[in-house]
Amino acid sequence: MNGIFRLTFRYLAYNRLKTVTLILCVSLALLLPVLLQFGISQFEQDLLSRARATPLIAGAKGSRFDLALQTMYFNQADRESTNMLEVETIQETGYALPVPLVLRFTAQGAPVVGTTLDYFEFRKLVMSKGANLKRLGDCVIGANVAENLQLSPGDQLMSDPLNVFDLSGTYPLKMRVVGVLEKSGSADDDAVFVDLHTEWIISGIGHGHQKINAATNKDLVLKQEGSTTIANAAVPQFNEVTEKNITSFHFHGNAETFPVTSIIVVPFDKKSEVLLLGMYDSDTSVLQLIRPIEIVNELMEMVFRVKQLFDMNTFLVSVSVGLLLCLVFLLSLRLRRRERQTMFQLGCSRSTIWKLQLTEMLFIVLVSLFIVLVLTVICRIYAYQIIKILFI
Fold this sequence. Notes:
By secondary structure, the protein is α+β, with helices and mostly antiparallel strands. It has twelve helices and 16 strands. It has helices at 2-14, 16-52, 64-73, 84-93, 117-123, 143-149, 196-203, 270-280, 292-335, 337-345, 350-381, 383-390, and strands at 56-60, 82-83, 96-107, 110-115, 127-130, 138-141, 156-158, 174-181, 192-195, 206-208, 221-225, 228-231, 249-251, 259-260, 262-267, 287-290. The two termini are 52 Å apart.
């Protein structure tokens, strides 16, 4: 048997181009259905686990899919926002704990999530370094953000401007990194978390600037109303919150009108959940209240319909590749007829000759299976990143 293996390896090594081509053909034929099945399974598992951990989501009426995915994965979506009044309304019902989210900006490409401390308790997020949010301008970053940007507590992170030519009053804010979250294998690993008020400062609703003296800063004064001095747009605004200037930060307008992208609603019990769903199930309600698990199930139904088409295509491709390989082997046998005759004349039995041919085929299939296994393991390790790039 050692002689058969030695001859097989020598032949395959001598015909490198043919061997590599056959291995790649078999690997691709096996890899496509394996990765497709694995990707769909991982996609479904990730969506379902995140959806089960999110009881209800409230937001402005519109696309239910955008609302669910934006709230669970912090992706950018062109949706209308609600306001803090709706958050207080849910709070006052006594049926659930509302966890508001503001999702508009990014920092070095990572989504900036404005929320409350309740979010960390709700998601069971634990600090690996540093502490939680304490004051304006603080941020807590996910494990992947800390690793990719090489950040740790004490460093600073600048938010990204919405537009280079933005004249709406939104300015990048230099945030202080106070904590790094432990890796959770979820969208939280790729986010930057700030307090709601910090998010509103980035939005331009709040700001801080130097104190204006009407007597000494006449060029910065717009008008004087009694004891109140109103400054003009020339007053330089602070782009960083420090211990020295934190008292100068203030907000304009009614806090009840401040924007909120969506609200994670955590009912206290099953009865409260039913009552809340009934409360917002009307045409007069300005909000829609959805169960993420139902949205994910609908989404997976559409995904599986598409998968059926891919399965059919994969089957046809696999049959084509199988027939092609059979043709290659048959042609190879015909081209190697003299070789087999020579081996037979040298005393090699016909059964041994066929064992050589079968060993070559077996070697190619085993190497192809090994390649598919390695690629599948790699995909499993980086499953969330791949799914996020392709689907979310």
